[in-house]
TrEMBL record:
Protein name: Protein FAM187B
Signal sequence, start to end: 1-17
Location of this chain's protein in the cell: Membrane
Lineage: Eukaryota, Metazoa, Chordata, Craniata, Vertebrata
Topology of this chain in the membrane: Single-pass type I membrane protein
Cited InterPro entries: FAM187A/B, Ig-like_dom_sf
Organism field: Cricetulus griseus
Homology family: Belongs to the FAM187 family.
PANTHER family assigned: FAM187, PROTEIN FAM187B
Primary localization: membrane
């Protein structure tokens, strides 16, 4: 028997589906993010060029060789399905080679995600003192709770936590920006926490949603494997 799958995808790739990262003009900003989820680094300059330096090396090169990178209007930089290997420095320079904005991004490996559910009595990872070329404290820096995924009926919400290192002087930095090398340890990982929720429906929000286009796909064999993806899905929302 053929298995018929109805797959839905939004008709237009809208920018709100991707996490927008910004930084004040001429500043350097540090961010921890998760691999596998699209982001846009904002530069907002008409004739800028992007340069990249991996966290594993100091060589700064023109960003034109990554297949998952695209320059958008206003020189904003789109990274599709970014990988941990793309952790490093992203520098946006104007046509006079002057810095417009600079990002140091730690794309933490989503495959290492430590998941807990608050209502099941599961607890996140605690702080841990480690020797990483000096004594430091490894901790999780949490984002705010996201919106409940359902309304009127019981649902769930989530929050993301990123691996950070705090030095003795109180300065903190995302783990792999601090270490600048591949180090494996059970504490060195990002987190995700779930919690039950129930909220009233927002009528305006519910009726102002994009429309869908449906495609039909058939599997030839009952034991065929299929990977279902939502083109505009993001762990950040």
């Amino acid at each position: 028997m053929l298995a018929t799958l109805w797959l839905a995808s939004l008709s237009l790739p809208m920018l709100w589906a991707q996490k927008l990262i910004n930084c004040p003009y001429k500043n350097v900003c540090h961010y921890a993010l998760l691999s596998g989820n699209d982001v846009i680094l904002q530069c907002n300059h008409p004739k800028a060029l992007w340069y990249f330096s991996s966290s594993m090396e100091d060589k700064l090169s023109l960003l034109n060789s990554m297949s998952n990178v695209k320059i958008l209007p206003r020189s904003n930089l789109q990274l599709t399905n970014p990988q941990p290997s793309q952790t490093g420095l992203y520098r946006c320079l104007d046509d006079h080679k002057t810095r417009v904005v600079e990002y140091e991004i730690d794309f933490q490996d989503i495959a290492l995600l430590h998941v807990t559910h608050k209502d099941l009595g599961q607890t996140p990872m605690g702080n841990e003192t480690m020797d990483l070329g000096g004594e430091v404290v490894v901790f999780t820096r949490w984002d705010p709770w996201q919106d409940c995924n359902r309304c009127e009926k019981p649902g769930e919400r989530k929050r993301l936590g990123y691996c950070y290192v705090e030095e003795q002087l109180g300065k903190s930095m995302p783990c792999w920006l601090y270490m600048r090398e591949k180090v494996t340890h059970k504490r060195l990982r990002p987190e995700l926490q779930l919690q039950a929720c129930q909220v009233p429906c927002d009528t305006i929000t519910e009726t102002n949603q994009p429309y869908f286009v449906f495609d039909t796909h058939q599997l030839d064999k009952t034991n065929d494997h299929v990977w279902l993806s939502c083109p505009l899905a993001s762990i950040y929302r």
